[in-house]
Every structure is written in C-alpha cells, then in structure tokens.
Amino acid sequence: MRIGEIAALVGVTPRAVRHYHHLGLLPEPERLPNGYREYGIRDAVLLARVRRLTELGLGLDEVRDVLADDEGRELVEVLEELDADLARQEAVVRERRARLAGLLGEARAGRLTAEGPVSPELAALLAGVGELPDSPMAVKDREILALLDTVVPAEERARLMGLMHEVAGSAGAVYGLLDALADAPADDPRVEEAARALAGALPDGIGGFALPAEGSGGLADVFFADLAPAQAAAVRRALDLVAERAEGGERRGGA
Q1: Beta partners for 31?
Q2: Which neighbouring-strand residues pair with 37?
Q3: Which Pfam families match (predicted)?
C-alpha cells in the first residue's frame, strides 16, 4: 500500500501519517526502488492503534509511551490517568452548567444585572442593594465590585461580599458626598466630611482587604486613576480612618 492508501484504509490523512513518522510513532516502512513507501498489514494495524489511542484523548507523547511498552502495563496506567482527568473535567462541566442554569433563569426573569455574570455572592449583594442610584460614584462602585468579584480568591470572596452588605444601607448618602467632589481639588475642605462619612459606613473588617500599594501597577492604581483628585483623597483618608479605628479597638480589647 502507498501512503494515501493506508491513510484512507485507517481513516487518517497522509499528512498525519507523515507526522507520526516524524515523531517516531510509526516506523518508516521499506521503500520501493522509485523511493515510494510501501506499507503492509503490520503498518496498518499499528496506525489503527495510534488512531484509537488518540481518539481516547491521549496526547502523542503518551501514545509513544504506550507503544513502547509491549506488555501493556503503561497503557493501563495512562488510561487510568486519562479516566481520572476526564472525571475532573466532567465535574467542572457539571458545576459550570449548574451556574449557567442559574444565570439563564435570572436572565429569563429579567433579573440578571448589567455586571453579570457574577458570583452568587455578588449577585445577592446587588439584589439587596436594589436599583442603582442616579450617581456616577455608584456606577464606579459597582464596577470595582465586579472587578473584585473576579480577582479576589473564592475563599475570601464570600467574606468580602458579606462585609459589603453592611455598607449598602448607608451608601446613598456617601455617594452624594463623593459625587460633589467630582470637580474639586484634592485639598477641598469637603474631602474630610466625605472621608468621615465613608469611614463610618465601612466596617472594620474591610481593612483585611487593603488594596495593594499604589504605584505597583495593581488594583489600587486602576481604582484611584478613575477617581477625581478630591474623591481619591477622600477614599484614601477614609481607609486611614478605618485603619486607625481598628487599631484603637485592638488596643482597647487588649487592655
């Protein structure tokens, strides 16, 4: 058989056969005087086995390991590993489909937020907040929450969103104070009022989620770059006030 004939017989392409030769999966057959490869039944059997193994999901390096072990011990090990990997993939797919089913339900009911899809924790927080106030700062707040929802590790996300539930009730007044600073310089006297209002709304535990230092190219830079100078000054001052309050509580608790 020529290369096109063996490829058609086994159900692969001539290009695949040449690739298997190149990788050493399929030994080179004898060549005719005119230089053409001449394949026999043994070549076809081996090529068919390569095809079956790749269809099971084995990589070509794994196929090479299997073919190198005549007694089949390596095949058993590889197939067991493949089975375990497929089981993990099935679990991931089931989890994703379950989440997608919930999102589809929310979307069909008209309850999917503009920030979606988001985690169940953030979805619950946004549902509790209700309609978005007519406030540019409220929009920024939701945007940063959606970003945090993605970048904060899953084990910390529930605690963070739980803390943010405590802020939701007083957020409207704080948004108004921060919106008023949109065109103000960083030394505007209203900065202190907005900072104290924001600090009063933030729970002490929020300090455990301090933003990375500015200038590191991280989330802090993204967040503060989107704020006006006076707004950024108010937020920085509020975070300092929360940290001072938490330190004072610790000192009183240890006294």
Answers
A1: 37
A2: 31
A3: MerR (PF00376)
Q: CA 253, CA 255: separation in Å to the nearest integer?
A: 6
DSSP 205-249: GGGGGPPPPTTSSSHHHHHHHTS-HHHHHHHHHHHHHHHHHHHHH
DSSP H stretches of helix in 69-217: 73-108, 120-129, 136-151, 154-168, 171-179, 190-201
Long-range contacts at 153-157 (CB < 8 A, ≥ 24 apart): 154/119, 156/209, 157/119, 157/121, 157/122
- What are 189-225's pLDDT values in tens digits? 999 999 999 888 887 766 555 555 556 556 677 778 8
Q: What are phi and psi of 227, to 5 degrees?
A: -105, 155
Taking only the tens place, the pLDDT of each residue in 216-250 is 556 677 778 888 999 999 988 998 898 888 776 65
Token pair of 216 as six digits: 């590191």
pTM above 0.85, yes or no: no
Identity (one letter) of the amino acid at 156?
E
